[in-house]
Structure formats: structure tokens, C-alpha cells
Design brief:
The structure holds two protein chains of two kinds. Chain A is of the alpha/beta class. Chain A is about 55% helix and about 15% strand. Chain A has a seven-stranded parallel beta sheet with strand order 3-2-1-4-5-6-7, sandwiched between helices. By secondary structure, chain B is α/β, with parallel strands linked by helices. Chain B has a single domain (about 30-290), classed as 3-Layer(aba) Sandwich (Rossmann fold), CATH 3.40.50. Chain B is built from eleven helices and seven strands. Chain B has a seven-stranded parallel beta sheet, with helices on both faces. The chains are: A alpha/beta, B alpha/beta. The interface of A and B includes residues 104 and 111 of A.
């Protein structure tokens, strides 16, 4: 049986991805901080699909997390086909309102954990090739968003990382994808904020986490590098990548009054 | 003939080294003059920037890992310009460095006008050949330290506005370079951070700039690596750290956002930014494989 490891798989987009993989009969390793959320996800996925789900509560922003997760996975002697880095932190407060500690946590969770988990698990993925890495970036990684400064910067780094890794791992037959969604209604606060800040376009562009997970997994298995779910989001992300950054940063900058 | 030239050079050198103590610096250092903090200022581009700031009469706070290179930089700068140079030995990748530097500056109520985040680490074939600890060190030095110092020193910069932040990224931050995976990714984050910060701090009268140089010959390995991978083209594009520092400081005071020194580097970087990323990555990937 093939296994997939999902970091940040207990909620939101990560859970959507877990569901789409369970549907395709992958056994799952789910890692997240909250043990209750993990237990809930395990129950639901095991009942709904005939797969084995293992859960581990672990803070992915901690530097020893890759070793802990690796030691835990290896006990099952799995054929690890998929690594998905879905853990991330964002939100409406960012630089400079965030404290130094939170700023660091955001960098470590959004970028460092994906970099180090991939590094740790590439040997296992190599053995199970053809295999897949799916990093969850964001449309915010296409152009700098001043009010989401650190979030947008770390997601850009993750996007760069995915591009490079794709090229580096081509000969190992490991395919790398980066999911770059627009607004995803994974919790009520995101829905409110999207409607407030982006108005109609935001509402039209927003997608549900289940749809994002399904679409991401489908594209990942087809070895697509950049994955943007939703037609309007795709069109807007095309514009974001084409237009000059300075112009975009200016229009994306709306100071709150 | 060869010997004669060498003799002349030695002669000139000794003249210079004798000349310095003969003309002592009569001007006392004025500590009320504005300060510039250069993180990673003991060598390379950072030293080039420190030199350009010293020339403009700024007192300096230099931060780097090793006290001996810092002390050497301090001696050179203080003997050439009537400024005060303070040196602090910190590893900027360490978690409490930024907070301690911030505390040091705040306690002394430093008239901080310029913050330069220069410290950075790169290398060839980083992701697949480096141990995880080195990759983490790179992330912490290249982006965390830059964001942390900017955050901690923001109140001082705001108080002494108009002031300036200069982040040192790289042309590698314009498009992903597979063989310099983490370097290129972290530099892209520095560029994004600078863009955003520029707009966030505009009404506080703090100007943010980001230096994105092509190859700079700061050490012999870089000269070799550039020639090997990019050939004559790379060699033409490469610049000397002194020139880069001077150019960067000039443009920072002109409030330029993205600073690319050198004509050929400027041209290449506009091409890189314009072309589809996938193409550029493909080209980089081919170049990077050259042994």
C-alpha cells in the first residue's frame, strides 16, 4: 500500500488534500499541532474511505520536528509516494504588528519546515519513485502584498524553492508541485476578511478547501508545477505574474484606517 | 624589469603605510553625527557599503561574527575618515542577536539614520549537498535576521527620520536558480520583503531599498565559480565590492527601490524579470550543471 505524508493535514487545505488522497486509496500520515483535530480527521477519513490513517501531534515550526516525524514514519516501513507540505501561518496581522517571536514562527512554519521536511524525506521518496512533493504556497507568492508582508515573502520563497526542486529532482523521478490558491474559505475569519478587503472579486475568486484539495491532487499526479485552482484565480494570477511588481505592490497596499 | 616593478610596489606601499601616522587624524570623531548600522559590515559588499557611508561622514556600527575582521575594518575606516566606528561581534543567525543589538542601540539612544542588512550566506549546490543545519542557518541569516533587525530597529529609525533601510539581496532573487536553491529562494523573500516594507514605511519617511547585484568578486571562490559557470559573460558582468558599495549607497540616498549595479547586470536582470520564469530556470539549470 502506498502512503502519503501531510504536514498540516488536520484542517483546511491540508485536510482537503488528505481527503482527495484517501479517495485514491493512499494510506495517510497526518501531522499537525492540535491532537483533537487530528483525531477527528482520522475518524472521519477512516470511516469514509478504507484507508489507514496515522496521526502525530507535532509543532512543525520546531527544528527537531523533521527528525521526530521521520522516526515515527519509518516504523511503518512505508512506501512513501507523496509528501505534502501544507502547514502555514498567515492572517491579517503581519509585519510590523507581529512580535519578533511570531514573525520568526511564520518564517519557520511557512518556509523552513517545507525545506527541512523535504530534505529529510527525499531519500524515502527516492526509493518509492515515481513520487511526488506538493508544497502549498499562495497567490501572495506571485507579487508582494504589503499588508501581508512576511506571509507574501515566505510564500514567494516557497515558490522559488519548488521551481528549483522540480529541476533538481527530475532525474530521481520525483515530481514537485506548488499549489498557489487565491482566497480559500478554510475558516470563517478568512471569509469575512476576503469579502471586506477584496469585495466582489474576492467572493467570486474564493474557493472551498475540499475543491482545492481535489484539484491540487489531480494536478500533482499529472506532474504540474504551478497549480492555481479556480478560473478567476488563474486569470488574476496570470496578471500578477505579468504586471510590474511595483505597480502591483502599490495597488495591493491598502493601509487600514 | 619584473623585480623593478615589485620593488616599486613595495616602495609605494611602505610610503603609504608610513604616510598614515605622519598625517594623524586631527579631526576628533563627532559622536553626535548620525549613525549607520551595517550588519555584515566587516568584509565584502558590507565593507564596501561601510566605506561609502564613512566617506559621507556617517558614524558606523559594524556587526559581524569575528572580532578580528571587525577590528581591522574599524582601524582602516577610522584612520581614513573622521568618524567613530563601533564594532559588535554577533552571529546574526542566532535567535537573540537582533534583540540584543536592538537593546544596545536603544539604551544608547543612537541617532540611527541608516540600517543595512548585508549579512548573507550562499554557495553552489546548496540543497542536495548541504546538511540540514546549514540550510537552516542560511534561512535564518538571509531572511530572519533581516526581518528581525528591521523590526527591532524600526522605532529608532522612525525617531530619526528621514532614514533609510538597505537590504542586500541578489540577482538570484529575480528567478529561481536550481543549484542555488535556498540562496535564491531566501533572496526572493528579501526582495518581496523590501517591496512591501517600502510601501508600509512610506508615510513614516523611511525609504527602503534593495540591492540586487550580479556576481561580485568578494572572494577568490566566487571569481572561480563565476568564470566556470558563466564564462566570459559572467566575468564581464562581475563587479568589485567597493564599486557596488558606493553605487548602492548613492542610490539608497536617492531613494531608489531596486538597485542593480553595473550596465550588463542591469540588462541581464531586466531580461530575467521579463522572461517567463520556467525558461529562466531551465537556462540556469543547464549552466549550473557545468563542472
Amino acid at each position: 500500500m502506498s502512503w502519503a505524508l501531510i504536514a498540516g493535514g488536520s484542517k483546511g487545505i491540508g485536510l482537503g488534500i488528505a481527503e482527495a488522497l484517501a479517495k485514491r486509496s493512499y494510506n495517510l500520515f497526518l501531522v499537525a499541532r492540535n491532537a483533537d483535530d487530528l483525531a477527528g480527521a482520522k475518524d472521519r477519513l477512516e470511516n469514509e474511505f478504507r484507508v489507514q490513517v496515522e496521526v502525530l501531534s507535532c509543532d512543525l515550526s520546531q527544528p527537531d520536528s523533521p527528525d521526530i516525524i521521520y522516526a515515527w514514519c519509518i516504523k511503518k516501513n512505508p512506501e512513501l509516494k507523496i509528501l505534502c507540505n501544507a502547514a502555514g501561518m498567515g492572517g491579517s496581522s503581519d509585519f510590523p504588528e507581529l512580535s519578533l517571536v511570531d514573525t520568526r514562527t511564520m518564517i519557520r512554519l511557512n518556509l523552513e519546515s517545507a525545506v527541512s521536511l523535504s530534505h529529510r524525506f527525499i531519500p524515502l521518496l527516492k526509493m518509492a519513485a515515481p513520487s511526488y512533493i506538493l508544497n502549498v504556497g499562495s497567490m501572495a507568492g506571485f507579487a508582494p502584498i504589503p499588508i501581508k508582508n512576511i506571509y507574501s515573502a515566505t510564500k514567494s520563497a516557497l515558490l522559488f524553492f519548488s521551481y528549483s526542486l522540480k529541476n533538481l529532482l527530475k532525474k530521481e523521478n520525483i515530481s514537485v508541485s506548488c499549489l498557489c490558491p487565491g482566497p480559500v474559505y478554510s475558516k470563517p475569519s478568512i471569509e469575512q476578511e476576503t469579502i471586506k478587503k477584496l469585495g466582489m472579486i474576492g467572493r467570486q475568486m474564493a474557493v472551498m478547501p475540499g475543491m482545492v484539495g481535489e484539484y491540487a491532487v489531480r494536478c500533482m499526479l499529472r506532474r504540474k508545477l504551478i497549480i492555481v485552482p479556480g478560473k478567476l484565480a488563474r486569470f488574476i494570477s496570470f496578471l500578477l505574474r505579468m504586471l510590474p511588481r511595483r505597480f502591483l505592490a502599490r495597488i495591493l497596499y491598502r493601509p487600514e484606517n | 624589469m619584473k623585480h623593478l616593478i615589485i620593488l616599486c610596489i613595495i616602495g609605494l606601499n611602505s610610503l603609504v603605510s608610513v604616510a598614515q601616522p605622519v598625517i594623524p587624524n586631527e579631526l576628533p570623531a563627532d559622536t553626535t553625527k548620525p549613525y549607520a548600522l551595517v550588519a555584515g559590515g566587516s568584509k565584502g559588499i558590507g565593507y564596501g557599503i561601510a566605506l561609502a557611508l564613512a566617506k559621507r561622514g556617517y558614524n558606523l556600527i559594524l556587526i559581524a561574527r569575528h572580532m578580528d575582521t571587525l577590528q581591522a575594518a574599524k582601524n582602516k575606516l577610522e584612520s581614513a575618515y573622521p568618524i567613530h566606528v563601533e564594532v559588535l561581534a554577533f552571529d546574526l543567525a542566532y535567535e537573540n542577536s537582533a534583540a540584543e543589538i536592538g537593546k544596545w542601540c536603544t539604551e544608547r539612544n543612537i541617532r540611527l539614520k541608516v540600517l543595512c542588512n548585508v549579512a548573507g550566506l550562499g554557495g553552489a549546490n546548496d540543497y542536495l549537498s548541504y546538511p540540514l543545519d546549514s540550510l537552516r542557518y542560511m534561512v535564518r541569516l538571509n531572511i530572519e535576521s533581516c526581518m528581525a533587525l528591521s523590526l527591532i530597529l524600526l522605532p529608532l529609525l522612525e525617531k530619526n527620520a528621514p532614514s533609510y533601510i538597505l537590504n542586500v539581496a541578489s540577482m538570484a532573487g529575480f528567478a529561481p536558480i536550481p543549484v542555488k536553491n535556498i540562496y535564491s529562494a531566501t533572496k526572493s523573500a528579501v526582495i518581496f520583503f523590501s517591496y512591501s516594507l517600502r510601501y508600509q514605511l512610506e508615510d513614516k519617511n523611511i525609504s527602503v531599498s534593495c540591492l540586487c547585484p550580479g556576481p561580485v568578486y568578494t572572494k577568490p571562490e566566487i571569481v572561480q565559480d563565476t568564470r566556470k559557470k558563466l564564462g566570459g559573460f559572467g566575468n564581464k558582468m562581475a563587479l568589485d565590492p567597493g564599486y557596488v558599495g558606493e553605487y548602492a549607497v548613492k542610490k539608497t540616498f536617492n531613494k531608489r527601490l531596486i538597485i542593480v549595479p553595473g550596465k550588463l547586470a542591469k540588462l541581464s536582470s531586466s531580461v530575467i524579470r521579463f522572461l517567463p520564469r520556467r525558461w529562466v530556470v531551465g537556462i540556469y539549470n543547464g549552466k549550473g550543471k557545468k563542472k
